[in-house]
Specification:
nucleotide-binding, Uridine Diphospho-n-acetylenolpyruvylglucosamine Reductase, domain 3, alpha+beta, oxidoreductase activity, seven-stranded antiparallel sheet, glycoprotein, 4 domains, 18 strands, Vanillyl-alcohol Oxidase, Chain A, domain 3, Uridine Diphospho-n-acetylenolpyruvylglucosamine Reductase, domain 2, 17 helices, Oxid_FAD_bind_N, FAD-bd_PCMH_sub1, 566 residues
Length: 566
């Protein structure tokens, strides 16, 4: 007969049982407390439980994963939120801010899930997700060419609704249709009309935000400093963006697109060298993005460049324009395709010819992959010798690629202090570093990130300095993160993203969110820290304490029963 286990031998099992029981009890208690608070604080208390998901909810994982756009942050080891809130009304958002603050949990705000580092839905601290996908109304007023668009809408939905109303209007924003409006615009927002019209934030005339106290503020109520900050400074540092009021821009009935590819054996180096001086200075109606990729063709390693272009006009104008400005490219009429602006949005999103614009309403059309992105700005052209050296390094690395996005045009006309986004005049083009991979696991992640980091290092002498600038919407935690929510930590990445505008952003943050409730690994810090977690370092968070007090009697009974005391 096997002897009974002694009390000491039971302790490891008891500790596991204790932790499981405590976690479940605490989680349930937090959920109940939060739902009750939400009912009390919200204007519409009906079915509040239907918009709040805890781990025990059968659809929790579905709701969490539907807007994860980077497979790096969809693994078994990725920290998960205690609760997901999917508001249906503005009052739900206001209540969620108040209740999260009262209970003592971080709130991560997700509009489309395209944050490259998963900051909108991952945290190493206990957190809730406020998922804005239900708040996606789009109200268009053609009388003054303005649109109120809620944060949870996607760019594809916005483009489609504009097209529905009038075919000769558009909006200068990104080319990926599943990107959420809230994150895209609050991070500045750029696309293939950047040289003609500038950034998305340059056409924001009003906004609605929920502040740290749960107040719903428009431009007048929030004041010009906060309104300035959320147009490029990242809304999640200051509150919850509910909606933007934007102005539309005119687009011609006919636009032209083309894509040309060259390898090193087909004068790619000459094309890239000339592109640097032409793409930022040519006709403002022309945007020429250039992809640079290491490839193997006929068992020979080489570099392939691809130039994708949008011209706001017809083929008979763009071909002679580039024959004069860029003869090295060799563009001919047969390379070009004329279409409507909405059809060009489909072309840039890699949809086939004849695809209905209704596909822009499909939120599931994005293929999730493992990825890492970085960014840089180039102020002076890279020499041919420099390019040839770069090609050798890229061929050695084999996998990471580069995307060159030209500036100039309208970007040169707007002061760097007009919005928090400072990268205007003086920048020839922006670089995106890109690597994707298929294999899951720590080793594949480490290997791929190391490759793109090496390419980033090789580019040091060619890009901006003091600071080495970066683009907020190409978020890169390698630049720096804050662990203690301090000004000095924030300054490291803050000056890269915002240059001299960082200091004004800090002043705004200090004024509107002194307790630093709205925070993440790269948020704008207040000048003085009044966050709960710093004042009470080492203590149990209030929410955990409350959950423990409520569940302690039951857990203790289980523990005592296990060791034979009762």
């Amino acid at each position: 007969m096997t002897p009974p286990l002694s009390t000491p031998s039971l302790l490891p099992l008891l500790l596991v049982a204790f932790n499981i029981c405590f976690s479940l009890a605490a989680s349930n208690s937090i959920y109940e407390s939060f739902v009750q608070c939400l009912k009390t604080r919200s204007n519409s208390s009906d079915n509040i439980s239907d918009i709040v998901y805890s781990h025990s909810n059968a659809t929790y994982e579905t709701v969490l994963e539907q807007y994860i756009r980077n497979a790096r942050f969809n693994t078994s080891s990725t920290p998960k939120p205690v609760i997901i809130i999917t508001p249906l009304t503005e009052s739900h958002v206001s209540a969620a801010v108040i209740c999260s603050n009262n209970i003592g949990f971080q709130l991560r705000i997700r509009s489309g899930g395209h944050d490259f580092e998963g900051v909108s839905y991952v945290s190493d601290q206990p957190f809730f997700i406020l998922d804005m996908f239900n708040l996606r109304s789009i109200s268009i007023n053609m009388a003054d060419q303005s649109v109120w668009v809620q944060s949870g809408a996607t760019l594809g939905e916005l483009y489609y609704r504009i097209w529905e109303k009038r075919r000769v209007y558009g909006f200068p924003a990104g080319v990926c249709p599943t990107v959420g409006v809230g994150g895209h615009i609050s991070g500045a927002g750029y696309g293939n009309m950047v040289r003609k019209y500038g950034l998305s934030v340059d056409y924001v005339v009003d906004a609605k935000i929920v502040d740290v106290n749960g107040n719903i503020l428009d431009r007048k109520a929030m004041g010009e400093d906060l309104f300035w900050a959320i147009r490029g400074g990242g809304g999640a540092s200051f509150g919850v963006i509910l909606a933007f009021n934007i102005k539309l821009v005119e687009v011609p009935e006919t636009v032209t697109v083309f894509k040309l590819e060259r390898t090193l054996e087909q004068n790619a180096t000459d094309v890239v060298y000339k592109w640097q001086s032409v793409a930022p200075t040519t006709d403002d109606n022309l945007f020429m993005r250039m992809l640079v990729q290491p490839v193997t063709l006929n068992k020979q390693k080489t570099i392939k460049i691809s130039i994708m272009a949008l011209y706001l006009g017809d083929v008979n104008s763009v071909v002679p324009l580039l024959a004069e400005d860029f003869p090295e490219l060799g563009l001919v009429t047969e390379d070009c395709f004329e279409m409507s602006w909405i059809e060009s949005a489909l072309w840039w999103a890699s949809f086939g010819k004849g695809t209905s614009p209704t596909v822009l309403l499909d939120r599931e059309s994005y293929h999730v992959k493992f990825m890492k992105r970085k960014s840089d700005y180039v102020k002076t052209p890279i020499s041919k010798d420099g390019l040839q050296w770069l090609w050798k390094k890229m061929i050695e690395l084999e996998e990471p690629g580069l995307v060159f996005n030209p500036y100039g045009g309208k970007m040169n006309e707007i002061k760097e202090t007009e919005t928090p986004f400072p990268h205007r005049a003086g920048n020839l083009f922006k670089i995106q570093y890109s690597i994707n991979w298929k294999d899951m696991g720590i080793e594949a992640d480490k290997r791929s990130r190391n490759l793109v980091n090496r390419l980033h290092s090789y580019m040091t002498s060619f890009v901006s300095k003091n600071p080495r600038s970066a683009y907020l919407n190409y978020r890169d935690l390698d630049i720096g993160i804050t662990k203690n929510w301090s000004y000095q930590e924030g300054k490291v990445y803050g000056e890269s993203y915002f240059n001299g505008n960082f200091e004004r952003l800090v002043d705004v943050k200090t004024a509107v969110d002194p307790p630093n409730f709205f925070r993440n690994e790269q948020s704008i810090p207040p000048r003085t820290i009044k966050a709960w977690n710093e004042k009470n370092e080492g203590s149990i968070p209030p929410s955990t304490s409350k959950a423990w007090n409520k569940s302690k009697p039951y857990v203790m009974i289980i523990l005592f029963m296990a060791i034979g005391i009762i």
